[in-house]
Design brief:
The chain is elongated. It has one domain. Helix 1 crosses helix 2, helix 1 packs across helix 3 and helix 2 packs antiparallel against helix 3. The chain contains 3 helices and no strands. By secondary structure, the chain is mainly α.
Length: 153
C-alpha cells in the first residue's frame, strides 16, 4: 500500500508541478507569440482551472501521505507540514483570485473588460503561483527524503 500511495503522490505532483512549469515556460510564451496576449489569456483562463484542480487533489494526497508516513525525523515531518500548509494557503488564494479575475473578463472569458482591476489582481495571482511552486518543490524534496528515511527504518 505504501508504494501505491507514494506512486499516486508522485504522479500528481509531477502533473501539477510539471504542468505548471511547462505551461509557464513553454506554452504561455509560444501562445502569446502565435495568438497574441488576448488569445493566450483566453487559453490561460481555462488552463489555470485545471492546474488549480490538480493542485488541490495533489495537496490532499500529500496530506494523507504525510499523515500516514512513519518518518523517524520529527523535524523533517514538520517541514513537510509547513510547506504543505504554505502550498495549501496559496491554493486557496489562487481559487479566490481566479474567481476575481474571471469577473474582470467578459462572459466568454476572451477579453479583459475591467483592466484597472484585472492587472493588479493578475500580478497577485502570478506571485502566489510562484510561491506555491517553490513550496511544491520543497514538498517534493522533503517527501523524497522522508520516504528514504522511512524505508531505512
Amino acid at each position: 500500500m505504501t508504494s501505491i500511495r507514494r506512486f499516486a503522490v508522485l504522479q500528481l505532483l509531477m502533473l501539477w508541478q510539471g504542468g505548471f512549469l511547462f505551461y509557464t515556460s513553454v506554452v504561455v510564451p509560444l501562445g502569446t507569440q502565435l495568438n497574441g496576449p488576448t488569445g493566450q489569456g483566453a487559453v490561460t483562463a481555462r488552463v489555470t482551472e485545471w492546474l488549480n484542480l490538480f493542485g488541490a487533489v495533489a495537496l490532499v494526497l500529500v496530506a494523507l501521505d504525510t499523515a500516514f508516513a512513519s518518518d523517524p525525523n520529527r523535524r523533517r515531518a514538520a517541514c513537510r507540514w509547513w510547506t504543505w500548509f504554505v502550498a495549501f494557503v496559496c491554493q486557496y488564494l489562487l481559487f479566490f483570485v481566479h474567481l476575481c479575475l474571471d469577473h474582470f473578463m467578459d462572459d466568454a472569458r476572451r477579453r479583459v473588460v475591467v483592466r484597472e482591476a484585472f492587472y493588479p489582481a493578475h500580478r497577485v495571482y502570478l506571485w502566489v503561483s510562484t510561491v506555491q511552486w517553490l513550496a511544491g518543490l520543497l514538498l517534493v524534496w522533503w517527501s523524497v527524503r522522508a520516504w528514504r528515511a522511512e524505508d531505512r527504518a
